Amino acid sequence: MIRQAFSDLFERLGSTSRRGIRPATLRESSLRSRIMPTPIPRELILSLQHYPDTSAKDVSSMKPCVEVGEWVAKYQLIAREKGPNATRLHAPTSGTVQAIEEIPPAVNGQRARLAIRLLTDTDERELPLEPPSDYRSLAPEQMIQLIEDAGICGMGGAGFPTATKVRDALEKGVKTLIINGVECEPYISCDEALIRERADLTVQGAELLQAACLADDCVIVIDNAMPAARQALKEKLQGSAIKLQVVRRRYPAGDERQLVKAVCRREVPNDGHPTDIGVLVQNIGTAVAVYEAIVHAKPCISRIVTLTGSALLTPKNFDAPIGTPVQHLLNLCGVNENQHEFTIRGGSMMGQYLMDQAAPIEKTTNCIIASNNAEIPEREAEQACIRCGYCEQACPAQLQPQRLLASIRNEEWQDTVELGLDDCIECGACAVVCPSRIPLVSYFRAGKEIHNEDHSAQRQSRHWQERFQFHQYRIKKNQEKARSAKVAAQSAGEEQGFSRDQARMEISAAVERVRRRREALARETGHGEEKS
Ligand code: SF4
Ligand code: SF4
Predict the structure, then answer these.
(1) Looking at residue 221, which CATH number applies to its domain?
(2) 14 occurs within a structural domain
(3) Helix count (H) and strand count (E) of the chain?
(4) How far is 185 from 320, CA to CA, in rounded Å?
(5) Which of 24, 394, 405, 407 has the fewest CB atoms inside 10 Å of its own CB, making it the most exposed?
(6) 257 shares a domain with 117
(7) Is 13 within a domain?
(8) SS3 of 434, please?
(9) Is the Cβ atom of 9 under 6 angstroms away from ligand 2?
(10) What are φ and ψ of residue 24, in 5° steps?
(11) CA 273-155-27 angle, 5° bins
(12) 348: left (phi > 0), else alpha (psi -120 to 50), else beta?
């Protein structure tokens, strides 16, 4: 994962807060221009594996309802969920189904997926939409049905079908609807761009979602680093019952549980969802898609994607049809090939290296970063834990990452349960602040997969297990190497009196790492050191 590679970047540009971290904002470049419509590419690749879970066993979660050679119109339903959930896939433009075949994994750990290859034509012939004559008089279940028909899923990244979530909220009688516009990842600006340019649709989408789940209150939450979006929302919210709340920018403030805590001052139960305590959380992009679905009966066929990174000549946000190859968007930005060493899908904290630039934009793809090692340096070698406690201070889930690390390394699975491994949201804040560069979140992810596999043979954890075993093998090998080197140094030292010097050097290195981190904190907060 990318987040460990970002440790250096955050060391230079960010700092810790009491819980979570406060990364530098790196979204200005992609916000210089307005959201750009995307010229339709020659081919769209529409994945039939809806869920972003990279270890999903099946090659597809959806069943195609078109055949190879068939011509399809824009907005035509081309696939639907196999299971009980409400996922749908529609043609983003008109064209001919060229193939329904497996496409290679886009990111490490993902399996091959089934996809529809649509050879687009230039006609953009579309099915006529049939919007409701008076959407304001629709009953909640009718609105939810329109959301389901439009195939909307959570556009914040998780991709859970929105209709299923709203129906659950309605049945549970939620009191509060939170529209999540907090961009806590440093590079992602798609939600900010959307609010800035389509604040009216955001507000109307929020009102419709509130009417669909019958929540008493609705709050739109943004962070304090979006002045233009804040101003646009303030204007559109005049006279509305919807409230605007601005939270301090901090990672991972946009996480559902953190947001509920910040807005409602209530904790989501460890094994539950926000709806269990009467709260429904929806992303900004989802609210706009809901507006289009209920008012215009328009299926979800595109999304806003941030294209950014130092290898791009003109970073920007695109309104991209689902299925657009990443390469097509990179070309539209202009790529400086000398600067382009890798591409990341997703943000810098939660994203993954893209293995294939022909991979398509999906409903959950919010950001593509084209970058290089100068901008995103390689992670330094992992060192021993010095028990500084920074990881614990940064953890938004109030865990003790250093203790979790020890229990995973020792394979003490009962201890990991008691220490709350399942409550780890894998945000990576602990790994970013760790002065010993320990890839904590990789250990936690691997630990969860191995532990869960013990309890559910269905879970696909082979990938992470292999990675973890390999990692352990490397650790053991390094430890053995270090032990032999120490023994050799000690025997030499006993003869030459160097063993104490060696120990002093190791202690000084650890103290120096802590000192650098404290100085960074003092610079950022402007009022001295935080207690470690
Ligand atoms: S332990 Fe988990 S939740 Fe806590 S900071 Fe680390 S990754 Fe985030
Ligand atoms: S931040 Fe790193 S070095 Fe410090 S206690 Fe946590 S794991 Fe150990």
Answers:
(1) 3.40.50.11540
(2) no
(3) 16, 19
(4) 20
(5) 24
(6) no
(7) no
(8) coil
(9) no
(10) -65, 150
(11) 115
(12) alpha
Find the 177 Cα to ligand 2 centroid distance in Å: 37
Same domain, 140 and 47: no
Residues 157 and 254 in one domain: yes
pLDDT in tens, 187-210: 999 999 999 999 999 999 999 999
Whether 424 lines ligand 1, by a CB cut-off of 6 Å, is yes
Q: What percent of the chain shows pLDDT beyond 70?
A: 79
The preferred substitution site among 383, 386, 403 for testing ligand 2, maximizing ligand atoms within 8 Å of CB, is: 386
Q: Residue whose CA is closest, atom 4 of ligand 2?
A: 388
Which of 151, 171, 149, 173 is closest to 160 using CA atoms? Answer: 151
Ligand 1: nearest atom to the Cα of 426: 7
Query: Do residues 197 and 190 touch, judged by C-beta distance below 8 A?
Result: no
Distance of alpha carbon 31 from alpha carbon 473, whole angstroms: 45
71 residue type, one letter: W
397 lines ligand 1 (CB under 6 A): yes
Cα 447 from Cα 411, distance rounded (Å): 8
Structurally, the chain folds into a number of domains equal to 3
Q: Label residue 370 by pLDDT band (50, 70, 90).
A: very high
Tens-place pLDDT, residues 232-285: 999 999 989 999 999 988 787 778 888 998 899 888 887 788 999 999 999 999
Q: Closest Cα partner for 124 from 321, 329, 326?
A: 321
Residue 15 resides in a domain: no
Quote the CA–CA distance of 476 and 409 in Å, as a whole number. 10
Looking at the structure, tell me whether residues 196 and 245 fall in a common domain: yes
Residues 172 and 292 in one domain: yes
**To the nearest whole number, what is the mean pLDDT of the chain?**
84
For 371-411, the pLDDT digits (tens) are 988 887 766 678 889 999 999 998 988 899 999 999 998 88
Residue 152 in tokens: 């909307």
Pairing of strands 217-223, 176-181: parallel
CA–CA dist 161, 155 (Å, integer) = 10
CA of 269 to the centre of ligand 2 (A): 27
Whether residues 171 and 256 share a domain: the answer is yes
Q: If you take atom 8 of ligand 1, which residue's CA is the nearest one?
A: 427
Say yes or no: 465 and 418 in one domain.
yes
| Ligand 2 atom 6 nearest Cα | 391
Instruction: Round to whole Å and give the CA distance between 263 and 275.
Output: 14
The CA 375 to ligand 2 mean position distance, Å, reads: 25
Q: How far is CA 469 from the centre of its chain?
A: 26
**How many Å lie between the centroid of ligand 1 and the Cα of residue 252?**
10
Cα(49)–Cα(389) distance, rounded to whole angstroms?
40
User: Is ligand 2 within 6 A of the CB of residue 402?
Assistant: yes
Q: Tell the residue number behind the tokens 């806590």, with chain if given.
A: 184
Residue ranges making up the domain that contains 71: 29-129+300-371
Q: Is the CB of 100 under 6 A from ligand 1?
A: no
Q: 270: buried, middle or exposed (CB in 10 Å: 19+, 13-18, 0-12)?
A: exposed
Nearest ligand 2 atom to the CA of 384 is 3
Q: Report whether residue 399 contacts ligand 1, using a CB cutoff of 6 Å.
A: yes
In this structure, how many other beta carbons lie within 10 angstroms of the beta carbon of residue 374? 9
